[in-house]
Write a structure and sequence with these properties.
Structural class: alpha+beta
Strand content: 25-35%
Strand order of the largest sheet: 3-7-8-14-11-10-9-22-25-21-20
Distance between the termini: 49 Å
RNA sequence: CGGGGCGUGGUGUAACGGUAGCAUCCAUGCUUUGGGAGCAUGUAGUCCGAGUUCAAAUCUCGGCGCCCCGACCA
């Protein structure tokens, strides 16, 4: 007979401090978020992982409606000639396109080979600016048609050579919003409004503290005048670009002839923006909050905020326990608290570990003892705190526990980022900081791309953004070349 | 596209050139159920092709596939 209480349970998840990359993969696997696919670099998102994406959609859609954007859909395939129209854009994406060249298969020696070559090949969209702005050029005639704001939820494909689940996959899901305005000011306001939507979403729903800023020239979107971004810091100190909003100026409108007649009957080109957030944010969610026990889901994004585990053996026990479970279910429904009752056969301990790995914020244990005492055992995922809560206080306890958990997660995220951001004033200090510490470095840089490239080459750190809060119009000397600098830049190693 | 490694049940692994074994998962039954249950029974495997050999998971050659490192990644 083996003695269970003596048995050391081996953790299925590699420790964060031991191997962060392996830890990340283990958390995903043990939480049942995704599966590998037969296609290199692609990923199967399993139901428990997809539920996170659906939640993200349900939060962002109303935000998009508030700024006047409506959902629409455009084709997966883009004529290659469309890509050619905007020079910077094609240069940015040409190297990583999946190309469709044939339209049927033919059997030859028992194998199916492509046949029926297309006259003009298509690319599978790496992003949809070109095909959407082709449509805009037909839709827009008058200043009365403006502004136009559309958003589409779709998949895109970028033939990345090195991939990691959620963070960088060959195919990924995202939303891309596209707008056209009659004035530069309108488009600029939208660029900043949308990055603020993303900041708010990251901080208030995902509990991830981010830096809102502007990308440097070398890191901006191919074809944009400038790119606004939110940058998050993962628990290993590396940066993750979590959402972007691009001021496209008139670059695409001139290439695709998206023009209108203004009130003076003069032809004008529209001012455009595009903005997007992808399934990569799920990677950020995992890397920002989870621990050595597995996934930690912030309460506002969790599919189930509460998991209820009935504990009972005999039929009589089952009867009283499930009676109580039904009552609690009704109370939770009333308060819109999402839950899952794990009524599968099997031992409670097994279920405790499973839901811990899956990151459910709160666990309710209900057994005969709790029924007798008119109370419930509640265990909080983040700190493992165990409470005995009287039935009468249950709902208010759950509500404040969920709120408290969100707050703790956000504070931890914010303190971690701020605690791992270092200001330096010369290159020696910069290099030693990057080498010896994890996190971001904040310093002055000139506008010269060459300095950024050299720094990346020599230290592995790239520019993350010029923070909107304090980075612009901040005079100093470039730490690399010593020239006058007008901006202060956040740098770090990035995913 | 360069450098390295690996292909054995669904998964993870073992086997000097000589009976393919262990764990887990799955299935069935009984006993269990407040922190990863126990016992019994069962299903299931050497990437493909050629060669060497009495004999190949093992050696050789070829193919295919996968992983890691680099290049690449608004």
């Amino acid at each position: 007979m083996s003695n269970n209480s003596d048995k050391k349970v081996e953790n299925k998840i590699t420790s964060r401090s031991e191997d962060f990359s392996q830890w990340y993969l283990d958390v995903i696997k043990e939480a049942d978020l995704s599966d590998s696919s037969p296609v290199r670099g692609c990923m199967v998102i399993k139901p428990y992982g997809y539920a996170i994406w659906e939640k993200i959609q349900s939060i962002l859609n109303p935000e998009f409606k508030k700024v006047g954007a409506q959902n629409a859909y455009f084709p997966l395939l883009i004529p290659v000639s469309f890509l050619e129209k905007e020079a910077e854009h094609v240069e940015g994406f040409a190297k990583e396109c999946a190309v469709v060249t044939h339209h049927r298969l033919e059997e030859k020696d028992g194998k199916l080979i492509p046949s029926g070559e297309l006259e003009e090949p298509f690319v599978i969209r790496p992003t949809s600016e070109t095909i959407i702005y082709d449509a805009f050029s037909k839709w827009i005639r008058s200043y009365r048609d403006l502004p136009v704001l559309v958003n589409q939820w779709c998949n895109v494909m970028r033939w990345e050579l090195r991939t990691r689940p959620f963070l960088r996959t060959v195919e990924f899901l995202w939303q891309e919003g596209h707008t056209a305005y009659d004035t530069k000011e309108g488009a600029e306001k939208n660029t900043l409004d949308m990055i603020e939507v993303y900041r708010k979403f990251a901080e208030e729903y995902l509990a991830i503290s981010v830096v809102k800023g502007i990308k440097t020239e070398s890191e901006k979107f191919a074809g944009a005048d400038y790119t606004a971004t939110i940058e998050a810091m993962m628990q290993d100190g590396k940066a993750l670009q979590s959402g972007t909003s691009h001021m496209l100026g008139q670059n695409f409108s001139k290439s695709f002839d998206v023009s209108f007649l203004d009130q003076n009957q003069e032809k004008q080109y529209v001012w455009q923006t595009s903005w997007g957030m992808s399934t990569r944010i799920i990677g950020a969610l995992i890397m920002a909050h989870s621990d050595d026990k597995g996934l930690v889901l912030p309460p506002k994004i969790a599919q189930y905020q509460v998991v209820i585990i009935p504990i009972c053996g005999s039929d009589e026990e089952k009867k009283v326990v499930f009676e109580k479970v039904e009552k609690i279910k009704a109370d939770l429904d009333k308060e819109n608290i999402s839950y899952k009752v794990d009524d599968r056969e099997g031992r409670p301990g097994f279920k405790f570990f499973e839901w811990e790995r899956k990151g459910v914020p709160l666990r309710l244990e209900i057994g005969p003892k709790d029924v007798a005492k008119n109370s419930v055992v509640i265990v909080e995922r983040l700190q493992g705190k165990k409470d005995f809560v009287e039935d009468a206080n249950l709902i208010s306890f759950i509500k404040s526990a969920l709120e408290g958990m969100h707050k703790t997660l956000f504070e931890n995220s914010k303190n971690f980022r701020e605690g791992h951001t270092y200001e330096v004033s010369n290159y020696e200090e910069f290099k030693s900081t990057i080498e010896s510490k994890i996190g971001f470095v904040y310093t002055h840089l000139c506008e010269d791309k060459a300095c950024e490239e050299k720094i990346k080459e020599e230290t592995g750190a790239s520019t993350r953004c010029i923070p909107l809060d304090g980075g612009l119009n901040n005079k100093g000397k470039c730490i690399y070349c010593g020239k006058e600098a007008n901006r202060k830049v956040l740098l770090g190693k990035a995913y």
